[in-house]
Protein: Aminopeptidase N
Organism: Formivibrio citricus
Amino acid sequence: MTHHRQAIHRLDYAPPAFLVDRVDLTFDLGETFTRVTSRLVVERNKQSSDTTAPLTLDGEELELESIKLDGAPLPRDRYQITDSALIIPDIEDEAILEIVTRINPAANTCLMGLYQSGGNLFTQCEAEGFRRITYYIDRPDVMARFTTTIIADKTKYPVLLSNGNRISEGTMDRNRHWVKWVDPFRKPSYLFALVAGKLVSLCGQHTTGRGKTVNIEIFVEAGNLDKCHHALAAAQKAMRWDEERFGLEYDLDTYMIVATSDFNMGAMENKGLNIFNTKFVLAKPDTATDADFEGIDAVVAHEYFHNWTGNRVTCRDWFQLSLKEGLTVYRDQEFSSDIGSRAVQRIQNVRTLREMQFAEDAGPQAHPVRPDTYIEINNFYTMTVYEKGAEVVRMIATLLGREGFRKGMELYFNRHDGKAVTCDDFVAAMADANGIDLEQFKRWYSQAGTPKLNIDGAYDEQAKTFTLTVRQSCPATPGQENKQPLHIPLAVGLIDRRGQDLPLQLAGECAPTGTTRVLELRRPVETFTFTQVPCLPVPSLLRDFSAPVRLDYAWSDEDLVFLMAHDSDAFARWEAANAYATRLLIGQYHVAAEGATVAAPVDFLEALRSLLVQEDLDPALVALMLELPSERMLLEEIPDVDPARLHQVCLAIKQQIARELRPEILRTYLALNNGEPYRYTSTDVARRSLKNVCLAYLAELDEAMVSEALLNQYSRADNMTDRLAALKALANRNGEEQLADFATRWKDDALVMDKWFALQAQSRRPGALSRVQKLMEHPAFSIRNPNKVRALIGTFCHQNLAHFHAEDGYGYAFAADRIIELDRLNPQIAARLAACFNRWKQVEPKRRAMMREELERIAGEENLSSDTYEIVTKALQA
Ligand code: TRP
Ligand code: ZN
C-alpha cells in the first residue's frame, strides 16, 4: 500500500491528458502468482490543455514483466517507474501498449485489487483498486471498452466471471480452461470485476415491461444455495420497481451477483457483475433476522439501481461521489418505502442520520456532501456523502414533486448517458426540466455542518392568525468558519384542539391548499403567517423530516404528548415521542450530575402506556415510539458528557418504564407471542418488532417469570429474530449457558457467529472488555476478516459506550492497539475503527485527555497508512 499524504483538491481537477479507447485484459490466474496482460489503445485527449504531458499510468504493488509500444518492446530508457506510476514521456498521440505485470492475490490483505477469499478469487476496484491489478489511467472520467479473458485451473476455478457477456470459452493444456467476456458498455476502471472459483448459482428471471427476459444469477459457495432466495426476489422486485418508478430497464442479458465473506463494505456495483458481502445475500429464517432481510432488499436494490445512477452515468472525479451514492441511496430508500412501510422506513433512516451523520457533521471529519479536499478517497465513503447526500436529493424531490423529479431524471439521462459528470450537472438537469432556480439550493453540496432552525410560533386571537418565525443558522466546521443561508423545504401542519389538521392558508392567498404545506426558507429569518386559524393550534413542524436539520421549537411536554397522539404525519408522531424522551433523558442526566434520583414524569409514562393499550395502532410504529433514543445519539447533545453517567441514566429510566408499565408490556408481549409459525410478511415483522421491544423492557425486571420467558423464547423460537432478541437480553443477565449453546449450534455459519460476537461486544455486564479480548482468540474470529472485526471490535468501540469509555481508559487503549494492528493489514478497516475517537472533545476532561493520548500514540506510529493518518490527524487538529 502507498503512504502518500498529499491532499487532493477538487478545484485542481483537469481533464486527463490521455483517454483509453479499448482495454483487452488477459488474466492467467494463480493464487500467489497471477499474470495480467493488458493491451491498451490510448489517445491524447483533445479536451486536455496539456498537449505535451507524458502518458502516466497508475500502478501500485505491481511487478512489471514487459512492456511493448506499438508492437515493439519499449527500451528501459523510454519509461520511468515509481511506486505509484509508470510514466512514458515520448509517445505519439495514438498508441497501443501491451503491458504484462504480475500480482500476488494471496498476499493481498487490504481486499483492494485482486484478492483471495475462501480459496476463490475476487476483485474490488472502487475507488482506486484497479491500479493494483495493472497499470492504467485509474480515474472515473476515463471510460473504455473492456474485454476480459480469464485462464485458470479447471478444478480450482471452475467458474470464471467478468463484466458483460460471456462470448467464448475453451480448454487448454495442464487442466486449464479459459473464458472470454466482452462488456458492450464503456466504463471507468473502478467498475471492472473478475471472479474465479468454486461457486454454485441460483438462477431466476425477470421479464421487462418491453418483454425482454433478463437472467439473474446469484453465485455463492456450495451449501449456501438455500439462502439465496430472498436476494433473488429482491433483485426481481428492484428491476420491476425501477421500470415503474423511473422507466429504467436493465441493459444486459444477465445480471450477476456474487457473494464473498471477505469484503470491506456492503457490496459493489461492478457492471453486470455485482460483488456482495455475504451479509447482504445469504438469509433464511433460522439464520437471519427481519432486519437482515430488510438489509438484503435495500442493498440488492442499491447495487442494482447503480446500473443507471453510477454506471451509465458516472462521476467525473471522486469529489462527485455523492452524485451516484446520494442519488442511489435515495432510490433504495424509496424502493424500501414502497415495498414496506413508508413511515417505518423514514423513521429508521432519520434515526441513522441523526445518530451517525449528525455526529460526523459536528466532529473533526465534517465535510460537505461534495468534499473540497481529501488525502485518502476511501475515507470519503461516509454518512455525509451517502445519507446526507440522499437527504439532499430527497429535498429536491420535495421541492419539485414526484412528477417534476421524474422529469428531472429523464433529462439527466438524456443529457449524460455514457458520460462522467458532476453534482452540478445533476442539479442543472433537475432545475432545467422544471424551469426552477436551484442556485441557492446548491449550497447543500458545498457547505458542511448540520443547519439549525429556531422557530417561534405566535397566535393572534383577534386576527385569527398564526405566525411562524424561522431563523436558520449553521455551525462552523473545520475549514468553514462562516456559513451562508440555505434553501430549505420545511413541511408544516397546524393541529387544532380536537387533534384535527387545519386547512392551511397563508396571508395573501384566497383559499386553503391542503393540510401539510412545504414552506421554502431562503433568508436567515423568514416569517409565515397563516390566516383563518380559529383557535390556538399546535404546530407540527418538519413533517416527514423534510430537511436534514436540527429543530428548536418550544413545545411544552403536553404539546409533545398531544402530537404523539394526534399528528396525522406518522413520522411526526414518532418524532414527538423521540423529542420528549430526548428532553427527559438529557434533563435526568443533569439531575443525576447533581446527585439527585433519576425519574421519568408520570405524563411521559402515561403517554407510553396509551400507546400500548390502543389496539388500532401499527405495532411497528408503537415499537419505534417505545424505544428510547440511543446513548450514541444522546452523547451528541451533552457537552463534556460523562458516558458512564449517561448509561446509568438511560438504564434507570428504562427500568422505571418496565416497572411502571409492567402489566401493559406483559399483556402486549403475551398477546404477540402466540406461537404462530414464522412468516416474513410486513404484518408479522411489525408484530415481532413490538413483541421484542416488550421483551427487552421485561428483561429489565428482576423476576423469575422474566427469566423463564427469556429461556422459553430462546429455546422455542423457530426463527433468528426471536432467538437473537432473547439471547441479547440473556447476554446482559447470566446467559452463559445459552451463549455456549448458540455457539455450538452455529459454529459453522460465519454470519450467525458475527451476531454472537456482536451481542457479547454489546453486553453491559461488567468485564465486557476482557470478554471481547478473550473472544479474539475464539476459532471463529479472525482479525483479517472485516465482518468479524466489525462484529466484535467495531461493536465494542462504537456501540458499547459504557465499556468503551471505561474510566480506567482500557477501552481506549484496546481500540488504539487494534487500529495499529489493523492498519498493517487493512487500512480501510483500521481507519473506520479510528472514527471511534472522533468525538473525544465532546467527552468530559479526564476521558478527553486519555482519548487524545491514544490518538497521539496512533499518529506517532511509523508507516501509518494514508487512511488512518488522515482520520487521526484530523481528529487531533480540529
Ligand atoms: N460503491 C459501493 C456502493 O456504495 C461501495 C464501495 C465503495 C465499496 N468502495 C468500496 C465496496 C470498496 C467495497 C470496497 O454500493
Ligand atoms: Zn453505492
About this structure: The radius of gyration is 28 Å.
